[in-house]
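Q: Hi! First time doing this. I have a protein sequence and I read that you can turn it into a structure. Is that right? Here it is:
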Amino acid sequence: MANLAKLDFVALDITGKNYLTWVVDVKIHLEAGNLGETINDEKSASSQDRAKAIIFIRHHLDEGLKSEYLTVEDLLALWKLISVLLVAKQNNELLLKNHQSQPTGSAPFPEVNAASLEVNATSSGGNIHK
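A: Yes, that's right. Below is the predicted 3D structure, encoded as structure tokens:
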């Protein structure tokens, strides 16, 4: 069933491609609704406020993420999902850095090994004396 209520911002895509903007939007809206404490590590928020935050967050998730990962009763599932998305984000950033340092199609860095340099110097030196 389609979600009939209007979203405050774009829902988190099932691929996680809009994760960074989604997180910022969630934080801003939770703070504006006096629910900012619900996402802090201190866990100082009441269970009622945490439930309100979960409902708000679930409202802004792709339907596939809602059905597979989250229920209001299972608050830990939300944090598991967020940690998985953070790892995916870190892996993506690492891949981008690797690609930027050596783009596809560029020549590989030459490998230099001290032992091979000595062997080459010795074999070159031997050829000179002949």
